[in-house]
Amino acid sequence: MDAVCFDMDGVVVDSEDYWHPYEREELLPLVGLEDLDLDEITGMNYREIYDYLIETYGIETDRAEFLGWYEETATTVYGEDVRLLDGADDLLAELRDRGVALALVSSSPRDWIDVVLDRFDLAFDAVVSADALDGPGKPEPAVYEHAADRIGVDPADAVAVEDSVHGIESASRAGMHVVGFRHGAADETDRGGADYVADSPADLREHLLARADGE
Questions:
Q1: H or E stretch including 190?
Q2: Dihedral Cα 154, 5, 53, 76, nearest 10 deg
Q3: Inter-residue contact 83 to 121 (CB < 8 Å)
Q4: pTM over 0.85
Q5: In 81-111, which positions are buried (b, 16+ CB within 10 angstroms) versus exposed (e)?
Q6: Which of 74, 98, 131, 140 could form a disulfide bond with 212, CB atoms 3.0-4.6 angstroms apart?
């Protein structure tokens, strides 16, 4: 394992714990889809979420209003709500000590990512926002292919840590070993597309360090 590519939302920070309630209570009523399974959109870029809901469900919400809701809510989520994954600082340091390159690969816009990096004083060898790519984001593989290129590794020699179905598919299609991260026992998202499912921060740490040590 030469590199680890971390998703941000739901992996490095616990933002899905906040996004999901906000989306259920505010966004889904706004677009008239109160019964939507949030797994359908989790992990996607918010602009592509709008396009998906238009194409799949024919929502009539104005695009500017929809995107504005995400942009306004993101200020609260990243600036006030989120916390780091337990042990994230130590895990990143231990991987660095083993010579593993680190990338942050997110569907969030770069300005949202920068709030997290600044708040928690985090540094990665590459930061890739799907929002900045010309092509489609997750579940397409381009964002992870781009991350591997940025840090100079073959995707086959990299591990991706993802919590969403779309993110797992994206990294898998890019050719990476994919670790699906589960948010506790109550999390019922199907991560069957991952090569390994980590049920806790401690499980994730053990799996990544074992691979870094060639076990």
A1: none
A2: -160
A3: no
A4: yes
A5: ebeebeebeebbeebeeeebbbbbbbbbbee
A6: 98
